[in-house]
Design a protein that fits this description.
With about 550 residues, the protein is of the alpha/beta class. It has helices spanning about 5-20, 55-65, 75-85, 90, 100-105, 130-135, 145-155, 170-185, 195-205, 215-225, 240-250, 280-295, 295-305, 335-350, 370-385, 390, 425-435, 445-465, 485-490, 510-520, 530-540; strands at about 40-50, 70-75, 95, 115-120, 120-130, 160-165, 210, 235-240, 255-260, 265-270, 270-275, 310, 355-360, 400-405, 415-420, 470-475, 500-505, 525. Strands 5, 6, 7, 8, 9, 10 and 12 form a seven-stranded mixed beta sheet that branches. Strands 15-14-13-16-17-18 form a six-stranded mixed beta sheet, sandwiched between helices. It has a five-stranded mixed beta sheet with strand order 2-1-3-11-4. Helix 7 packs across helix 9.
Length: about 550
Amino acid sequence: MRRSGLLVVVAAALLLGACTDHGSSGTAKPDESEGPFLKGSGTLRVLASSELADLQPILADARQATGVDVQLQATGTLDGVENVVSGNAAKQYDAIWFASNRYLQLHPAAGDKIGTATKVATSPVVLGLRQSVAAKLGWTDHRPTWSEIAVAAGEHKFSYGMTNPASSNSGFSALVGVAAAMAGTGAALTAEQIAPLTPRLRAFFAGQDLTAGSSGWLADAFVKNAAAQDRTVDGLVNYESVILSLNTSGKLPEPMTVVYPADGVVTADYPLTLLAGVSEQTRTNYAAVADYLRRPSVQRQIMAKTWRRPAVPNLTLATEFGPKGGALPELPFPGRLEAANALIGAFGDDLRKPARTIYVLDLSGSMKGERIQGLKNALTGLTGADTSLSGQFSRFNGREQVLMVPFSTKPGQVRRFDVPESDFQPTLEQIRSYAGGLAANGDTAIYDALFVAYDQAAALAKEDPDRFTSIVLLTDGELTAGANLEAFQARLPQLPKVPVFTILFGEGNVAEMQQVAELTGGKSFDARTGSLPAAFKEIRGYQ
């Protein structure tokens, strides 16, 4: 099939899907009453945002109807964009499926890498607050502007969780929306406008008490926080779909009110996008899947199962969607790459609460050779040596405290680095030099070193409590010295509430490291089949 012929088929199928709504809100599986299914065969390999995993049941139905098996491989926002722009995505995948293509399309090299795009669903990034908090602020009946929200956050009238804009589209969309609304020009934000907005943006982010590298993990962390007696987080800045899903999950002791800012939002539109240069069979498979996903019956299924809004017109929204009696304006996205990148960079160095990151590093004898070199490379990459797109935004930030707790038979000397607000290159060079001098020898005292890290966190929190504090634990082996897991569990209630992000590496005890992460509210990252630098970069989204 020629490309022009494919586009006619897709356009006709999508038009059919847009015009055959019967006004029903049911979620019955589609049949051919909406027109015959387009057919394909084989697989459609898709590099996708991790949050789209909730579409797997619908994709399984699509396979039955079309003969095409859609295989999703999860990626973060910047990693996904970098894969496309570099051309690497086309070597492994047929299509991409990000929350939005807007940042990707700012890259000059992206134009010839992507082809046909089909919007599948939409979800605006909004604020969800516990009903009692929203009522106290007067936001159950009044729609505040982002500026009003920022003032209340800066005055600590509520707290919230949000993903890191350098790792997740929901966080980036929130950052863009708040900045564009505060600029108040109605036009795309420019790089020059960011500095004057810094004080007001800092006020907004002063209310952030929970961070994450993905929307799904953020939601899970919020649920755990909400269940705790000493809960500290009042809401989420996230996709509307995430907030509505949590409200109907039964997991929250108190549902959230969805606050739709009066001056607008930035909306994800989930475009399933064909990569350039694929085969005719792949084009046929893509057309079949795109047609299936845009059918009114499937759009209703997506709305019912994932709480995303339909991407086709004339479908009735479920009553849970808002805002009631008002429009949902779309705020402008940056029109130039330098403006978007400047905004992400400003978030890390100037706008967000500063981080305190404590690295607990296994330097036992089993780390000799390639493993210690991998560790050196990983830490060096975080000093700015990694110049890739994702590397630019995963380096240590201005105002960040970085602590190194090396260990082998016993914990070594703690080294602390305070990255200044500006001119931070000399400090980054010091960290790079420290990493280059690491050497391996001795046994493995994992928990003795973790206790040292927690002691450091507790002492520093007394001096400066207003930071995101996290611990990263890297070990490649089994415990051979010092305290054990049982001792750690026994002491944990007396330790500060700091998440431990464990890296699965070498012959380390996988189950035990996963348990440490779970006990502390952290997350495990697998570097056994991938690279250690990639794991260290991914963790940066959670710090």
